[in-house]
Design goal:
tRNA (guanine-N(7)-)-methyltransferase, alpha/beta, 245 residues, globular, seven-stranded mixed beta sheet, 32% helix
Amino acid sequence: MSQESRTNADVTLTEYTEDGKLVRKIRSFVRREGRLTKGQQLALENNWANMGIDFDKQPLNWTEVYGREGHVVLEIGFGMGASLVEMAKNAPEKNFIGIEVHSPGVGACLMAAEAESLTNLRVMCHDAVEVFEHMIPDGSLDTVQLFFPDPWHKARHHKRRIVQPAFVEMVRKKLKIGGIFHMATDWENYAEHMVDVMKAAPGYENTAQDGDYIPRPEERPLTKFEARGHRLGHGVWDMKFARTE
């Protein structure tokens, strides 16, 4: 998958020594702002008041955010937003929220959402860890999605991968009991890394019935890039882990 198609999840990871001393904070994603097209800029101006959520160190009330009750599905790093918009369109009974640091992607997502007249989608343009820390109530999410994050495929960069023990524990706290953490990647080595981290993490259970992975669920749209990859024999690995405690 191209770099432009990667999940743009700008997450600050904290590294410690064995005795608990802070070593440094590292970013799992190198910010690539890019330039907004006129359409993206207009979509931001026209739709942010209705669909955008500004960062604030106050917990969100989902009923107030959406004006109704409903399952809350949060996606970390939605890229240009095509699949997120399609999921929101296909499941109008659910409430979707996407976090993305790439402003052209946010603008593109709002353009698509406006074209579909969606009312069940909200977006944020901020660091995901800070949003989780300050704005997402514990035990309030039904699903967290992380699709095609940057694999940081060089071994010396593996520590920058977003799926790390502290990250998955952060996600677990925000999920309801029985809530799902759904990941997908087109890098087999990263898929194996994800499974290893999740197996070691407390309070999770793999929902796969045969092996570590699941077939692509119907609710996750097949992207054009992914379809092309399938034709070329490339693999994609989906994983769903449920919060158990």
